[in-house]
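Lab meeting prep.
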Amino acid sequence: QVQLVESGGGLVQVGGSLRLSCAASGGRISTYSMDWFRQPPGKERDFVALVRSNGATDYADAVKGRFTISRDNAKNTLYLQMNSLKSEDTAIYFCRARRGVLNYWGQGTQVTVSS
């Protein structure tokens, strides 16, 4: 079973940047599709970005051009570089490892963007 631990969240001003990390243990992530989701206060969890095992990426329209997802299989870690942050990016950010019927989630990290 894969365990995921997010880190790198915090308080940042509008226009600032943060880099989130998602460290995996208990299994290698190289064969998993890896996703980032976020859950704003009082709202549902939404897709942010994904990187497939072959390196292909996809993004939600709301973050295209501002966020970059990447993976370092050697370090067994997923990243999310977030630039030009907006107040509406405030949320708890979760990473997920997915392969077939297997789904593993982290506990989340809070990102707060203040104006």
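Slide two material, second protein:
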Amino acid sequence: QVQLVESGGGVVQAGGSLRLSCAASGRMFSVYAMGWFRQPPGKEREFVAAIAATGWDGGTTSYSDSTKGRFIISRDNAKNTLYLQMNSLKPEDTAVYYCAGRASPKTTMTGHDYVYWGQGTQVTVSS
């Protein structure tokens, strides 16, 4: 079992930055693909970014079209922690952000492929 706990959310002005963290329990973190998803108010959950297990396909990363070039996903296996650096934030980035993990080294953009989920952290971007 893997438990995920997000932190780092908050209120920021448009154009600002935030870094989300996701602390994972367990010894399997390094071999799992990890992802970030978000759920804007009144909308369905959507993919944000994902990162493959270290050593798998060069630790490849993937992003949604709306976050590519502004967000950076990374992982520190020694700390069992996943990060999401969010830059040039826009009001439409306002959402609850969730950390997720797969029992597989390969990433996908589909939420149903992830079996471990955190409780979420709120990000609010004011205009």
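Talking points for slide two:
The chain has no helices and eleven strands.
The two ends are 40 Å apart (CA to CA).
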